[in-house]
Amino acid sequence: MKKKVGVLVSGRGSNLQALLDACADPVFPAEIVLVISNVPGVHALERAKRAGVATTVIPHKGFASREAFDAEMDKALRAAGVEIVCLAGFMRLLSAGFAEAWRERMINIHPALLPSFKGLHTHRRAIEAGVKLHGCTVHLVTPDLDDGPILVQKAVPVLAADDEDTLAARVLEQEHLAYPQALRLLAEGRVRVEGNRALIDDAPTDNA
Ligand code: GRF
Q: Which of the residues are catalytic?
């Protein structure tokens, strides 16, 4: 049985697209059953519709508190039978309660090699810091921002001629590889958490 996935988005949705493309493979162990956006009219919603995936817009502005907004998302995810949540360019902080409720079943992609460069403007900050390697991280979500056990990382070189945009583009290519890989690991039940570490069990083999 494929694991049912809900994806939370706020914008362009290129990582959502990478997940949709991976899920189109009949042997991929997960399927996307719902895409939730907190922003109406974003391109991510078009991508979901084009793939025949149900969408819901839950504008955060209509809620008195973060908890109330998160409760509405939680309700929609559970109604759709979601088992794994993917944050894909979702630009809202999550309440601790929501993060706890989905602990070890919710993943995020961050455009930096965590624990370096948490937060925003990661590419600009990487260039300013003079690092030679930069990249992306897919991690399990905990109540702390851009924290939690790491599932997959991919590194890219930072070149002397890079500006924020060229570096972002190089990282984004790797994001689109990393996110489906991480979702596959989680969906196949191969992730074991020990303290701050996610340990990955070997791939099941055909003759196991
Ligand atoms: C990506 O760089 C992702 O790492 C970050 O937000 C961006 C979203 O891009 N969390 P997209 O909407 O997936 O194209």
A: 110
